[in-house]
Amino acid sequence: MLACLLIENLNNRLREITNLLAFYTPTHLAPTPSKIERRSPIDLSDAVPVALDQVPVCPHCEITDESVYIDLEVDEMTAKADEYVEDLLKEFRAIDVEMRLGIADSRFASFVAAHSAKSHSPCIVPQDKTESFLSSQSVSLLPILPETRRRLKLLGMHTFGEIACVDSCDVTNQFGKEGALIADLVRGIDPTPLTFYQPPVTQDPTDRQERIWGGEVQTGARLKPVSIMAKKIGCIDFPQAMFRRRNWVYFDSIIDFWKLEDAWWTEEPQRSIYFKLSVSERELTVCHDLALGNWSQYSGIY
Amino acid sequence: MEYTELHCHSHYSFLDGTSSPADLAAEAAQLRLKGLALTDDNGLYGVIPFIQKCSEIGLLHIIGSLITVQPATDNTCLDDKILLLCENLTGYENLSQLITRAHGADTKSEVAVTIDDVNELSDGLICLVGKNSDIAALLQQNRIESARARLDTFRQIFSANRLYVELNNHLDLGDGSLRKQFCQLAHDLSLGYVATNGVRYATRREARLHDVLRCIAHKTSIDKSRSIRVPNHERYLKSAQEIQVLFSEIPSALKNTQVILERCNVKLDFSQYRFPNFDPPDGYNADSYLTMLCEKSLSHKYDSISIEAKTRLNEELSLIKRLGLSGYFLAVWDIMKFARDKGIPAQGRGSAANSLVAYLLNITPVDPIAYDLFFGRFLNEEKTTIPDIDIDFASARDTRLADRDDVLDYVGRKYGFDHIGLTSMFMTFGAKGAIREIGKVFGYPSSLLEKMSRFTEGRKNPQSAFSKIQELKQFDRYTKQKRWRHFRDQVQAVIGIPRHISTHPGGMIITSCELPKLVPLQPTRIQGRRICQWDKDMVEDAGLIKVDLLGLTMLAVLRECLVLIAETYNLRFNLAAIEPDDPEVYNMIAKADTVGLFQIESRVQIQTVPRTKPRNLSELAAQVAIIRPGPVQGNMVDPYIRRKQGLESIRYPHPRLEPILKETLGVVLFQEQILQVASTIAGYTSGEAENLRRDLDKKRSKKHLEMMQSEFVDAAEKNGVAKIDATQIFDSIKGFAAYGFCKSHALAFAHLAYQSAWLKRYYKTAYFAALINNQPMGFYPVSVILNEAKRRGVEILPVDVNCSGVRCHLETEKTEAVRLSLTCVKGISAAKAESIVTIRQLESFNSIKDFVLRTKLGSINIENLIGAGAFDSFGLSRRELLWQLWIVDRWRDSSLIDPKLTPPPLKKMSAWNKLISECNAQQFSIDSHPMQLIRSRLSSEIKRQDALEKLRNGVKTSVAGLVVCIQKPATAKGVAFMLLEDESGMLNVVIYPTVYAKYRSIFKLSPCVCVYGILQREGNLISIQANSFEGLSFA
Fold first, then answer.
1. Angstrom distances, CA of residue B525 to CA of B41, B99, B144, B417
2. A32: pLDDT confidence band, cut at 50, 70 and 90?
3. pLDDT tens per residue across span B108-120
4. Residue A230 has pLDDT above 70, yes or no
5. Handedness of CA B639, B644, B650, B654 (dihedral sign)
6. pLDDT exceeding 70 applies to what percent of chain B?
7. In what order do the strands lie in the sheet with B4-5?
8. Which residue has the higher pLDDT, A33 or A89?
């Protein structure tokens, strides 16, 4: 038997869910069982969307964008499948993850069962009832091209049962390879094996750079507040001296100055004037935040 | 120090400027600038209103444009722009021609001129090179020598005398160093420099809108727009003091702006550019040839020539000669002659129909003497503008038939394509478009924007949509954010700003000189057709003559109907010669059997014609004219209808007005009556009366209106009319003037309305076939027209691959019926239909396989044909046909495989499925009406519309149907009108504001509704006053 879990926003809570699934990994399958510690549900709820390589491996599960398939027939589980499912349901409820669970004897049937299930209440299809369970299901659940789905509907075939009434050869004749798949699936035949989860490799997030006006600045370049103040500064009347710790610091000239007005539509609008100054044979860029009135030294690249 | 802003963009820089030329001029005057240049991107779009405003407020103006030049091959700058300012009229002509060249021959080419073009047309122009040029890019790359060489190229073209370096201080990063580099270059090449601010908005508060417009232009969201926005909000119109501070180190940059202002002096006067001279035959000049044509026609048109006709003709001809307009009339006559020779139906409309000369030249169909039309409305001695002649030509949907496009080509060939141009229209942001486009900029989801768009439907102001959305909790996460307020402000700010330029439906300028010297031309999407950069008002204000050559589909309907009658019944007749007062035709109109008729088919017309019951062409013209905002605003509709019904006695605002208003039962219905009222009451001359009408038409300010009223009342008092009467009379014409028809125009339209009614009355099958062939047109979708045809007893036969043609035609084998055309089916173009018809001429199609293999049409096209029932005659169900189609289609390229085509047993299609498949394939079903299929599910209390006839006035009732349209006229004080169609007919539903507000989401979202309300009966006319609505589902 196979279990299919349909989980909303699976990717956003991948870390929690894979942690949870990993904890329930049968011990003989777990790569480093000793390192997986049981955490409380609270500990698991800290996750934000994470890179997939940060989550543990679950060797008995296939994880897709919206669903998790679990093989319930790996050695250790066969006998304790009911208990396992019960535990999973409790855990998911505890971490407040919306999930629908279907159990059936094929991958596709379990997927359809999960669709029929209510949240946290599993839909279990007995092995000998698969075809009758499937017959009333909508063709929209078939993993087929939208065009094939459209054609089925135009032919008046809205349920699996209506397709199953047509000879498999005719369905194959009409839809080719996809027709053969359809003819099998609507009869509960799905030999597709599970592809067990392997985390992909992602890019180093520190590589990212952000553009600013006229150039690039490394992430993390910030305006560092320093104790520089001016009596009066602005685009009209330029300062000839600046005040630092009660002492006047004279600068030689203004090399350039520019004004930035940005993000006015956000909670943190920017209105600043930047001055590139020559101070004792070195250059210094200072920024005057026109909204807050404070001064800072600018150390980013512009 | 004085300052003139030499670089200023208005909203005619399309998405790179926010203020109108008039607002910029007003702000410049406010800032006490000496002068202002208008320099939009590759355009002179705003020049006319700019000059008008500058003259009004006494500001000196400069005409210019920021022109894109193809960059030199050795550098990387893609955007090389120079600023050109006109020194004199030669400069203006050159600039206009340069812009025309920049726009090229088709819309796909990049807008830019070559340096050779600039060299050729540089006379009279002053050039400013600055931050927008590729020289700036070269300086930033430290390629000083390349920059110097490029600047030297311009120096050779313009000489040092007419070339300046443009310096900016926008407080952008790098502005300071760029300024220094430019100053150095100017010094090296002995050039002057000027300060400008590259203005994009009149005041700083519009800067945010500019940011938003840049995002729309680049199709990006505001969050990702840094690279395409300017870094700050400094591009506003600055005072001399502000500029002086910014350029304190180079004061001569300000002085030079004054030098340029003094040098630039362009006064646009196009009065010498007349309409091209018509080349009369030997022995004639234009005047004598026109006289000859008119006199010849006079004896044809009138059995006996009255003195009145003779006198009027002489008066008109002498005025036309005095104003030098004979050539103009002959040119229009020549265009009409071409149309007639080519079999293109055409007729003049508008005030030209007041002219006997136009009637005699067959430009208009209305006899101005028979209908007592006032010539002064069209032309008079004091008229300051040249009158437009508007002509409608058939606009055919059948590309095989000659139509308006052929006329436009003829005019181009006759006068030269450089002497003609279509007038343009500026498409401005409306509430709905603003919400959608700015919403995208702010990153709002389409679900939210769609909802808001629906709430904005039919409203000019978007505020109610914002209020309604803010009430919906589901959108709280958006509406509670700070950016929501910005979104709302920017939507409000953008409304009315031009979004892009488009083509006016008919206006065409024809000039004796090359048009690109007067106004820049730019290409349209139609190959070889060009529009000028001014709209019709600007063209008129500039004093250019235009002719409106409009496309009118109804003329094509009439032509096609006559062809069908000739083909089917072998009958040929001239519509112009039919009996004009046939009582049968007027009886049909009086029964509101007007769907598909010209001008009298709308919901409101259907509601009023049974009450007014027109019995002749004059009354029909009144009917056409009355359902217009003018009479509605002037409160003239109800009095007219009640007087026509004999429910109210006829009263005149003043006894002297009885002869003028007698025909229209004491109310003002036509524009001519305004002129006559002004002459009779206030003693105005024809010219003064016409000026009054035009001033009222132009929606002047309240102050100006009060001034006009005071002048009118004073003149009336002097003319012996009491002040109180004069004031009342002025009030009644004030509301009317803006949106009224002139009588001649209404009569021309009434002619067409009558002809369409006559054909519908006597040849309804042919008429409906022609009507369907020319869809979309008129007020109703094709489904409504088909249902109407069936209700009127016309049999409609479905599309059939072996019987249907390219156009709908008549079949008369068993009974008379309309056979729908192949082109009724979605995706089947005229060319595809033509090919099907040609192929089947050899042998009829006998199976789907045969059809697929012989026609080679795509499977989607064939699916639609199956859905429409075009293969039903093959004896297979539509599902079986689809089964076969897809198999044949899969193997169509493989001749070796013969697939099994026999379909398995497939479920039979329900009537509902059939209806859906037909609607998907051709947007209508001829077998059943949706209401017919859901009728059984409705309560028996919900009546069919034909059952309402038995009910008495005032009873509570309910009906259900498809919503054909909802109208909420601005003049109806919030009352909305819905047209509801069921299987038995159409019904008007009146919705009062409170009911509308409560249920609008139901009838806006549901195609089919149930209405509960009170039956209102007036004679045979039935409507429902709605109390509540319920949405009906087809599921």
1. 20, 18, 42, 16
2. very low
3. 788 999 999 999 9
4. no
5. positive
6. 96
7. B4-5, B35-41, B60-69, B80-86, B125-129, B163-167, B192-195
8. A89
How many beta-carbon pairs under 8 angstroms link A with B? 86
Contact list in B for residue A302 (CB cut-off 8 A) is 173
Encode pLDDT of B236-258 as tens digits: 999 999 999 899 888 899 999 99
DSSP-derived 3-state class of residue B800: coil
* pTM as predicted: 0.76
Under DSSP, the state recorded for A225 is P
- The Cα angle at residue B456 between residues B452 and B458, in degrees rounded to 5: 155
- Taking the C-alpha atoms of residue B488 and residue B760, their distance in angstroms, rounded to an integer, is 50
Do the Cβ atoms of A155 and B879 come within 8 Å? Answer: yes
Instruction: Identify the helix (H) or strand (E) that includes residue B947.
Output: none
| Highest mean pLDDT of the ranges A75-79, A89-93, A173-177 | A173-177
Q: Report DSSP state, residue B255.
A: H
Contacts of A154 in chain B (CB under 8 A): 863, 879, 882, 917
β-strand partners of B83? B66, B128
- Other Cβ atoms within 10 Å of B217 Cβ, number: 12
Chain A partners of B234 at a C-beta cutoff of 8 Å? 259
Instruction: Return d(Cα B905, Cα B532) in angstroms, integer.
Output: 64
In this complex, is the C-beta atom of A217 within 8 Å of any C-beta atom belonging to chain B?
A: no
pLDDT tens per residue across span B737-752: 667 788 888 999 999 9
Q: Please, are residues B917 and B867 in contact by the beta-carbon 8 Å criterion?
A: yes
Q: Which ipTM score applies to this complex?
A: 0.74
Q: Which amino acid is located at B9 in the chain?
A: H
Highest mean pLDDT among B124-133, B365-374, B732-741: B124-133
Cα–Cα nearest to B255, from B195, B198, B199: B195
**Above 70 in pLDDT, residue A199?**
no
Residues contacting residue B843 through CB under 8 Å, at least 6 positions apart: none
Own/partner contacts of B918-922, CB < 8 Å, gap of 24 or more, are B918/B867, B918/B868, B918/B869, B920/B826, B920/B864, B920/B867, B921/B825, B921/B826, B921/B863, B921/B864, B921/B865, B921/B866, B921/B867, B921/B868, B922/B799, B922/B820, B922/B824, B922/B825, B922/B826, B922/B864, B922/B867, B922/B868
Closest partner residue to A264 (CB to CB) among B173, B208, B887 is B208
- Write the pLDDT tens digit of every residue in B469-526: 787 777 888 888 888 999 999 999 999 999 999 999 889 998 888 999 999 999 998 8
Q: Do A155 and B177 touch (CB under 8 A)?
A: no
CB-CB under 8 Å, B886 with A174: yes
Structure tokens at A20: 């949870």
Kindly state whether A238 is in contact with chain B, defined as any CB-CB distance less than 8 angstroms. Answer: no
Record: contact B171-A235, CB cut-off 8 A: yes
**Chain position carrying tokens 């409106």:** B548
Assess B283–A contact: CB distance below 8 Å, yes or no. no
Name the residue among B370, B193, B474 with its Cα closest to residue B751: B370
- Type and span of the H or E element at B955: none
Q: Which of B152, B167, B349, B348 is nearest to B254 (CA)?
A: B167
Measured CA to CA, the distance from residue B711 to residue B717 in angstroms comes to 10
Element (H, E) at B783: helix B782-791
Alpha carbon distance B178, B180 (integer Å): 5
Q: In terms of pLDDT, which residue wins out, B733 or B32?
A: B32
Cβ atoms B960, B942 nearer than 8 A = yes
Residue A239 confidence (pLDDT) above 50: no
| Encoded tokens for B523 | 């290409």
Instruction: State percent of chain B over pLDDT 90.
Output: 60
- At B75, the pLDDT band (50, 70, 90 cuts) reads low
Q: Which of residues 218-237 of A touch B (CB under 8 A)?
A: 235-236
